[in-house]
UniProtKB/TrEMBL annotation:
SUPFAM superfamilies: OMPA-like. Keywords: Signal. It holds the Pfam family OMP_b-brl. The keyword Signal applies. Transmembrane segments: none annotated. Residues 16-264 form the Outer membrane protein beta-barrel domain. It comes from Halochromatium glycolicum. The keyword Signal applies. This is Outer membrane protein beta-barrel domain-containing protein. InterPro entries: Beta-barrel_OMP, OMP/PagP_B-barrel.
Amino acid sequence: MNTHQRLQQFNLTALAVLAMMALSIEPAASDWYVRGALGYERSEDADLSDADCASKAPPALFGCARGPDGRPIGAYGDFGSGPLWELAVGRRFLPWLRGDLSVAYRGDLDFDGNANFLGVGTRQPASGELESWTGMLNLFTNLDTLTKIDLGIVEPYIGVGIGVARNELGRLRFSFPENTGNHRYSVIPSGERWEVAYTLALGTGIRIGDRTTLDIALRYNDLGEVGSNRGRMAMNTLPDGIVIDRIQTGLRTYGVSVGFRYRF
């Protein structure tokens, strides 16, 4: 089990324990709330590689060799930046603890990278579109009430969430404009992944009314894996294409969100 998997297991276990504790407490009706947020996030580096570089049936796209730059053959880049839309419903369990269920959508996360295949020049642009939906169980701890420090209308908090991400990667195109041969491009199949996801948040609420709170947060998100499905790769030199194995990368994003909570 790698470090990423152990971290996901730890967060899932911790959140499950806190959720069971919180659900055993009966809140007042006025502790329910809805939350909406808009955000802007950027992805970390997302380097595409084979799910199994030694695969033969079907063959791996990149293989286990190294490219002209000394790195394993792959596609090196990221998913750029894009907007976040989120809706949630939740309730306060204790003066310092609240939780909600959220649905979020991330679009316009387009892969922009460069491959390093052998013998086709150094400029090998790779591009494709991505969208991601998440459903999360989130818990937030209000630091002012937990520490009994009165900050007036300001309510700083930390949060953690565990859930499921559906990551859909469109067809990826590899171009070879410097190739002196006939091979100018390859297009590999799209892919869908259902992944365990988690998020970490550091933010603050600012009360602007009896029921309404402005919510500003910094977030880090691990949305699991993104990649293509096994299928047929099209090439300009081979109209029928060839069947290739899957490629994949991790999707990690960070950014800021601004929204409102309304208590009813």
